[in-house]
Amino acid sequence: MQARWDVVVVGGGHAGAEAALAAARLGKQTLLLTREMATVGRMSCNPAVGGLAKGQVVREIDALGGAMGLVADRTAIQFKVLNGSRGTAVRGLRCQSDKALYAQELSRVLGAAKNLALGEGTAAGFLVRGGRLAGLLLEDGSTLACGAAVVTTGTFLRGLLHVGDKQREAGRWNEPPARALSDALSGLGLRLGRMKTGTPPRVRAGTVDLAKMTRAPGDERPVAFSFRSRGEAFPRQRQVDCWLTHTDEAVHDLIRESLPLSPLYSGRITGRGPRYCPSIEDKVVRFSDKPRHQIFVEPEGLSTDWLYLNGLSMSLPEKTQESIVRMIPGLERAEILRPAYAVEYDIVFPEQLDVSLETRALPGLFLAGQINGTSGYEEAAGQGLVAGTNAARSVAGEAPLRLGRHEAYIGVMLDDLVTLGLDEPYRLLTSRAEHRLLLGADTAYARLTGRALAFGLLSEREAAPVLDAEARVARVTEGLNAARVRPDRAMKERLSGRGVSLVEETTLGGLLRRPGTDLEAIEELCAEILEAGAARDLAALRPEERDRLVADLRYEGFVTRERDAVARVARSLERVFPEGFAFAGLPGLSAEAVEKLERHRPRTLGQASRLPGVTPAAVTLLLARLVAAGREAAA
Amino acid sequence: MARLVADPDREGDVLVAPATPPGISALAVVRLTGPAGATRRVARQIARRLPEEPRPREAALHLLVGEDGRPLDRALVLFFPAPHSATGEEVVEFLCHGSPAIVGGLLAAARAAGARPAKRGEFTRRALANGKLDLAEAEGVAALAAAENRGAARRALSLVEGDLSRRVLAAKEAILDVLAGLEAGLDFAEDVEAADLLAAGAALDAAAGEVEALAATAARGGARDRRKVVAILGRPNAGKSTLFNALVGRDRAIVTAVPGTTRDAIADTCEIGGETVTLLDTAGLRATEDEVEKIGVAVAERAGEGADLVLYAIDATRGLSEEDEDFLRRGRGEGTLLVRTKTDLVGASSLSSSPAIELSVSALIGAGLEALRAQMAERLSLVEADGELLVLERHREALASAAAFLRDAADLARRVPGEPELVAARVREALAALGAITGETATEELLDRIFAAFCVGK
Ligand SMILES: Nc1nc2c(ncn2[C@@H]2O[C@H](COP(=O)(O)OP(=O)(O)OP(=O)(O)O)[C@@H](O)[C@H]2O)c(=O)[nH]1
Ligand SMILES: [Mg+2]
C-alpha cells in the first residue's frame, strides 16, 4: 500500500463507498480502507433501498454524482413507490435489492473508479501535526499519511451483539468489532454515546407457506432511482414478489411473558434504540391495544433462499424467537437461518461536527454514517458523499459543500445532526423537512444539479441529459400555460365528455391545476392546441416527468409560498456569527443557553435557534446582538 | 426588540421590590432577586438567623431586623435557588405583615445591605433574560414598561403572565394532533392508515373557530391600542371649554363669558375607563362673517367627523336651539352624546327637558362628571371584559393568518381526491403563525406526538 494519500476513507459500507467515490471524483488520491474486502457494500440489515424520505435522499445522492441510485437500480428485484397515490413530493421510491448483487456491483463501481484504491487494514488511531490530521495509525502498527480522513465505521465501534441473554463483541454477525478507534476518538476530546439497533430473524424460503400470506407485488411500471439508468436496460434483474403476514394476540402474549428474557427490558442494553423502528417487544408493550402487527417477508436475493422478516426485530433468546416465528401464519415450519439480534455500538455525538461533517476537535477528520448516530443505508450514503466531498475540498483548502434545509433532505439531516443532538438513532422523515413540498424526489435534479456542477461532482457531459430533461419539462410547462382554452360550446362539450367542466377562459395549464384533472384526460387537446415544439416535448416526456409536470402546476401556489417563507426566514436566520463571537459575554443569556452555545458553536442564528435550551427570547437577544454588531462593523 | 435586552451594567445587582400593592393588608411580600450567594447575603442581613444554605422552597419563620438592627417583624422567609425561581435567578421572599411601615423598613434594610430598588418591569426582564418567558410574554414586559394607564398595564401583565401564550398553546395542541395524524399517514404509509381527511377537516375547522375567537377577544382588547379621540362640540358659550378643563383636570382652555372665545381646536388627554383618551375642545358652532372664527368652525366640524365620540354641549339655561337641532339632524347617532351643561343654574325639575338629552353636568361645581365619564367609557367600548388579553398588532396578524390557513386547510381536506400533503402544508403554516407568537418551532413536538400515538416502523 502506498504510504501517502490525499484522502483515506475508513470503512467500506454505504457511507464509506460514497465518501471514497466523491473524493476520488474530485481528483484526490483516495484510499478506501476496509477490514475485509469481501464485506464492502454489504447490506447488513434489510434488503432494500429507499423509502419515504430515504428515496428522496437516494435521488439527491444521484444528482450529486453518487453511486447508490445506479447500484440499486441495477441490482433491484422489486420496485415500489410508497405513497404512490399521493402527491409527488411525498412519494418514496423504494426497491428490494439482491444483497449479494448489490455488494458485488458496488465493489465493481469502486474498483473501476479513477484515483481510488481499496486496501485492507484496521484504523486504530490518528496522527496529528500542527493541530490537523496528518495520518492514520493502523492496528498492525503501520501508518498512513493523509491530508484528510473520513471515518465511517458504522456499528463497529465497541460493537456488542445481543441475542437473549447471550452477548458477544461484534460489529455485525460474525464480524469482529473495532475497539481501539473508540479510545482514539475519545482521546481527541470527542464525547461518545451509545446506541442500539436491531435486525429481525432470517428464515429459509423453502420452509415458508406463502399460500397463507398476502402477495405484495412491485409496481407494474418501475421507477428508477438514477438518471443514468435511462441509458441502460432497466430493470436489469428478474422482478419478484414480497409477502405479507402478521402477528396476533397469542404471539403478543408470548412476547409479554418472555420480556424478562429480553436484554432490552432486563436492562442489559443501555444504548437507546429508535422509536420509529421499534423492536416487536417495544411494539407490543407500547401499543398494547393493537391486536396485530404486520410483517413483510422479503427475499434477500434471487440466488439465495434467505428471507428477511421485516417487522420482527427483537433480542429475545433463540428458543423464544423460534416459538414466536412459528406462531405466525405461514411460518409454522419456518427454519431460522439467523436469529434476530440487537447491536449496541458507540457513536460520536454529532453536535461536535460542522455541517461539513468535519470534527471541530481535529480539522481534517470527517465522520459519516452510523458513527454519527444515524440509521439507514441512505442516511449513511448521503453523509458519506458530503464528507468525502468536503474531505477532498479541505485537502485543497477550499470551502466545504453545505446543503441548506430547503435544498435537500441531506441538508435537513446534516443540520439536524449538528444542531439538535441525539438521544435515539436518527432517521430521516419527510415531516422533519419544513419545506417538504420543495423536496420531492422528482425535483432532486432541479435542486442539486447546479451544485453538483459547481463542485465538480458531475461533469457537464454527465449532467447534459439531466439538464435537457429539466429544460424539456420547463418548455412544456410554458407551452401549457400559454395555450388558451376558450369556453365555446364545442370545447365545453368536448371537455365535459372527459369529466372536465369549463366555465371561463383558461389555459391548458389552468385545467391541469384543478384537482382531479390529469394529463391523460386532456391529452388529445394538448396535442391539438399546444404549440408544435411544446407538443413534441410533451410526447417525449417520461411517465415520471409527466407526473412531475402536473405536480409542479398543482403545487405552484404552495411552492411559491414556501420559497417566500424560505427567503424570509433565511434573511434573519442565516446571519452568521462572526469568528470568535463570545456567547459568554452576552448580557441576558441564561447560563444554560451560554453553555449550549459555547459547546455547539453554531455557525448561524438558525442553528442556534434549534439548539435545545436556547429559548426564543435568547434567539431574539442574539439577533439583536448580531444586528448591532453588523451596524458597528458598517460604521 | 432591542428594547427587551436586559440592562447590561446592572445585571449583577441584587434587586428588591414589594410584590404586593401598597397599603394596609394582612400580608405583604417583599422579594429579592439576584446572583446566587449575593442575594442570600442581603437576605441574611435582614433575617440574621437564615442559614447560609436555606432549604429551597420551604417557608421558615424568622425575625427580620431593619437597617438599624432593631426588630421589624416576625415573618416567613422563602428561598428559591436558581434557576427554579420566577426570575431564573436566586430569589428570597419575605412574607411580612402588610403595613407600609414594615414594608418600607424592609426595603430600607435591603438597600442598606446592598440591594437596589427594582425599576418597573425589572423582575420580569430578568426572567426574560433567563429564559423564563417566551416571546409573547417578553413582549408583555416591554408593553408593561410602556403602559401609560391602568388598563394597559393590566393587559400587559396578563401577557407577561402568559395568558395569551397559554391559549395559543392550547390551540396548537389540537392542531398538532390533527397534523400528527396526517404526518403519520404520510411518513409511515406502510404502518399507519392514511388520516381520515374529512375528520381532519372538521377538526381543523373547529381549531380555526378557536383561533378566530381568540383573535376576536384579542381585537376587543387590542381596540385599545389606538388611543380614542373625543371632541366637544356645541354652540358658542355652551360651556364647552369649562367642561373640557374639568375633564382634563386643569385650566387648559380659556374660559370667558364672551361667546366665540375658543377659536382653534385644543387637544389634551384624560383617563376614561382606565384608558388614556384624547379630548378636543373646539370653537362654538355658528354662522359667522369673522374670518378666523369661520376657519375655527370648519376645524370643529372636521374634528367632530374624525372623533370616536362627540360630546355635544347644550346650555341648560337656553335649551335646544334651531342650530343644535340642525346639527343633530345631520346625525351621528351612536357617536354623539348630548350633554346639558350649567345645570347648577337651572332647577332640578327641568333636568330632562328633552328626551334626547342623555346627561346633565355642571362643570363648574363638578356635578354629573362621574356619570359622564362612565357613559363615555361605555360609548367608546372601553368597558373591560373579563379575560381580556393584550394582543399586539403582531399577535393579531399572526392569529388572523393562522385562522385563515386553518380554514384553507379544512377546505383542502374536504377536496377529492385528498391531498394530505397539501393539507399538512397549510396546517404547518398555521402552526408557524401561532408559533411566531410564542416564538417556537413545532417539528420536535410533532415527532414526539407521532411516536407516542402511532405504532410505526416495521
Ligand atoms: N354657572 C355655570 N356657568 C358655567 C358653567 N359652564 C360654563 N359656564 C360659564 O359659561 C360661560 C361660557 O363658558 P365656556 O366654557 O367658555 O363656553 P364655550 O362653549 O367654550 O364658549 P366658546 O368657546 O365661546 O364657544 C363662561 O362664563 C362660564 O363661566 C357651569 O357649569 N355653570
Ligand atoms: Mg370655549
CATH architecture of the largest domain in chain B: 3-Layer(aba) Sandwich
Largest interface: A-B, 61 and 51 residues
Oligomer: heterodimer
Structural class of chain B: alpha/beta
Termini gap of chain B: 48 Å
What would the principal axes of the Cα set say about the shape of chain B? flat
The SSE string of chain B, one letter per element, is: EEHEEEHEHHHHHEHEEHEHEEHHHH
Q: Tell me about the biggest sheet of chain A?
A: 7 strands, mixed
Protein structure class of chain A: alpha+beta
Low-confidence stretches of chain B: 1-10
Q: Output mean pLDDT of chain B.
A: 81
**CATH T-level fold name of the largest domain in chain B:** Rossmann fold
CATH superfamily of the domain at 460-558 in chain A: tRNA uridine 5-carboxymethylaminomethyl modification enzyme MnmG/GidA
- Give the name of the CATH architecture of the domain at 460-558 in chain A: Orthogonal Bundle
| Major pleated sheet of chain B | 6 strands, mixed
The CATH topology of the domain at 460-558 in chain A comes to Arc Repressor Mutant, subunit A
Bound molecules: guanosine-5'-triphosphate, magnesium ion
Number of strands of chain B: 12
Q: Strands of the largest sheet of chain B, in order across it?
A: 3-4-5-2-1-6
Taking all Cα atoms into account, the compactness measure Rg of chain B is: 30 Å
How many DSSP helices of chain B? 14
Map the helices and strands.
The complex is a heterodimer of chains A (635) and B (458).
Chain A: E1 4-10, H1 14-25, E2 30-34, E3 48-50, H2 54-63, H3 68-75, E4 76-82, E5 92-97, H4 99-112, E6 116-120, E7 123-129, E8 132-138, E9 143-151, E10 160-163, E11 166-169, H5 180-187, E12 192-199, E13 202-204, E14 214-216, E15 242-246, H6 249-258, H7 263-266, H8 280-286, E16 294-299, E17 306-310, H9 318-326, E18 336-338, E19 341-348, E20 365-367, H10 377-395, H11 409-420, H12 444-454, H13 460-482, E21 484-485, H14 489-496, E22 506-507, H15 508-513, H16 523-529, H17 532-540, H18 543-573, H19 591-600, H20 605-609, H21 616-634
Parallel strand pairs in A: 1-2, 1-9, 2-6, 9-20
Antiparallel strand pairs in A: 3-5, 4-5, 7-8, 8-9, 10-11, 10-19, 12-19, 13-17, 13-18, 14-15, 15-16, 16-17, 21-22
Helix pairs in contact in A: 1-10, 2-10, 2-12, 3-4, 12-13, 13-17, 13-18, 16-17
Chain B: E1 15-18, E2 25-34, H1 38-46, E3 60-65, E4 71-80, E5 90-98, H2 100-112, E6 116-117, H3 122-129, H4 135-146, H5 150-160, H6 163-187, H7 197-222, E7 228-234, H8 240-248, E8 266-272, E9 275-281, H9 291-306, E10 309-315, H10 322-330, E11 336-341, E12 359-360, H11 369-379, H12 393-414, H13 420-438, H14 443-453
Parallel strand pairs in B: 1-6, 7-9, 7-10, 10-11, 11-12
Antiparallel strand pairs in B: 1-2, 2-5, 3-4, 4-5, 8-9
The site of guanosine-5'-triphosphate has 23 residues of chain B, from helix 8.
